UniProtKB/TrEMBL annotation:
NCBIfam families cross-referenced by the UniProt entry: PEP_CTERM
Name listed for the protein in its UniProt record: Putative secreted protein with PEP-CTERM sorting signal
Record has Transcription regulation as a keyword: no
SMART domains the record matches: CHRD (SM00754)
Residue ranges of every copy of the CHRD domain listed in the record: 23-174
Signal peptide: 1-22
Keywords (A to Z) from UniProt: Signal
Length: 208
């Protein structure tokens, strides 16, 4: 009876820990020259954090960069490469550059939220390749990011017009994921303990 109560308690804990479908997903990337294709020796570094809210149809872009060898000429997200985490892809987001992105500088910060249900938030070829609608383009972009086939890129002039630093976007695990993992581990441990207990009882060994 005690085992059944414990099992019910663990199942309840797991159910409570299981989150609802996340409204937002956060992705990050480390931007460097060696991450470019082909790689380069730029000393520049940067970070990109992309927050996507699929319910609201928005995408917040936060970037910070420094140490570039040239002046920024453009920045955007490219999607979708043939192979995850490598290769080249066309520009997916607004072209020629993110709205209001720092230009003509070697270091800076950026923070802007885009309405991804507005067709103007996309590069026209990417929009047309995905049904010609903002929703189709949004779905394709999110899918590409989730598959590891989209990267943030900062272009500079005159040496790196094709991109000085870039990085493939990857999701940040949500806190609820760890709660689910811990609940699952607790259930596995309880089941293993129960098997040992039953084995002992079958052997005539009394516990407790």
């Amino acid at each position: 009876m005690k085992l059944n109560v414990l099992a019910a308690g663990c199942l309840l804990t797991a159910a409570v820990a299981m989150p609802a479908v996340a409204q937002t997903t956060v992705y990050t990337a480390n931007l460097t020259g060696p991450n470019e294709d082909p790689p380069n020796s730029s000393p520049g570094i940067g970070t990109a954090m992309i927050t996507i809210n699929q319910d609201a149809g928005t995408m917040r872009v936060e970037e910070s960069f420094s140490g570039l060898t040239g002046n920024v000429s453009a920045s955007h997200i490219h999607c979708c490469t043939t192979t995850p985490h490598e290769g080249l892809a066309g520009v997916a987001t607004v072209s020629p550059t993110f709205t209001g992105f720092p230009s003509g500088v070697m270091a800076g910060d950026y923070d802007h939220t885009f309405n991804m249900l507005d067709a103007s938030s996309y590069n026209l070829p990417f929009l047309n390749a995905n049904g010609g609608t903002a929703q189709g383009a949004f779905d394709a972009l999110v899918g590409g990011i989730n598959d590891g086939r989209a990267y943030a890129n900062i272009h500079t002039m005159p040496e790196f017009p094709g991109g000085e630093i870039r990085g493939f976007l990857a999701p940040i695990p949500e806190p609820e994921t760890y709660a689910m993992l811990l609940a699952g581990l607790a259930m596995v441990s309880m089941m293993a303990w129960r098997r040992r207990l039953l084995s002992c009882e079958d052997s005539g060994v009394r516990i407790g």
